[in-house]
Amino acid sequence: SRVGGWAWMAGLLFLGMLFALMSSRRLAAMLLAFLRRSGRPARRLAATLALSMDCARVLLRPRNLPALLAVSTVSWFWECWGLVFAARAFGMELELGQAVFIYSLATLAGALAFLPGGLGVTEGSLALLLGGQAGLERGAAAAATLVIRATTLWFAVAIGVGALLWLDRRRGLGERLWRGLRAEDIEALRGQERAEAAAGQLP
């Protein structure tokens, strides 16, 4: 549909801008410099963002990207199959191709909403698409949506919370996350940027 096409285009544009930000050290440095001049909360955000960009650059290296894409493809494939099984559990038939389109579009809509896990937006999109595009009954569409979100998003959240509590007891991770990056971490990141700028490595 036209709405789905525009949603995909918006998502691809967003991903392209994000990839450009991760790939260009000069563009990233400009953004970080702007945040550091914008007050204390923005400076804390800049430090966290700098660390996130460094990690993302490692993950997006050409030698790492094929393995990441393979793992992501397998993961998304089984999540879409999970949506098929969730629909069948309530006596409704859903083709795998329909599940891939509906689940991908709903997840993209949730990502573009910039909400944690796409809360509300992803669920609403899933229910509407299951009813409008796949022809599921309203009750079955809502139930299938709750099941697939509980077994994907919230199951992962439960594992993450359990791991965080365990690490907090073992290493005090919760207190470190609450306080943000340590001063030496922030200074190390700034020193790295200054060294790269002096060496002329920024594109």
Q: Give me the Rg, rounded.
A: 21 Å
What is the averaged pLDDT score?
A: 77
Number of strands: 0
Task: Tell me the strand percentage band.
Answer: under 5%
Please state the structural category.
Answer: mainly alpha
Query: Helical element count?
Result: 9
Globally, the shape reads elongated
Element pattern in H and E: HHHHHHHHH
* Main sheet: strands, sense, barrel: none
Question: Unreliable stretches, pLDDT < 50, 5 or more residues?
Answer: none
Q: How far do the termini sit from each other? A: 40 Å
Helical percentage? over 70%
Name its key features.
203 residues, mainly alpha
Describe the 3D structure.
It is a single chain. The radius of gyration is 21 Å and the shape is elongated. It has nine helices and no strands. It has 203 residues and is mainly alpha-helical. The two termini are 40 Å apart. The longest helix is centred in the last third of the chain and has 34 residues. The model has no long low-confidence stretch (mean pLDDT 77). Helix content is 81%, strand content 0%. α2 runs antiparallel to α3 and α6 runs antiparallel to α7.
Topology, element by element:
Layout: H1 2-23, H2 25-36, H3 40-59, H4 65-89, H5 96-112, H6 121-132, H7 138-171, H8 173-179, H9 183-198
Give the gist of this structure.
The protein has nine helices and no strands. With 203 residues, the chain is mainly α. Helix 4 crosses helix 5 and helix 5 packs antiparallel against helix 6.
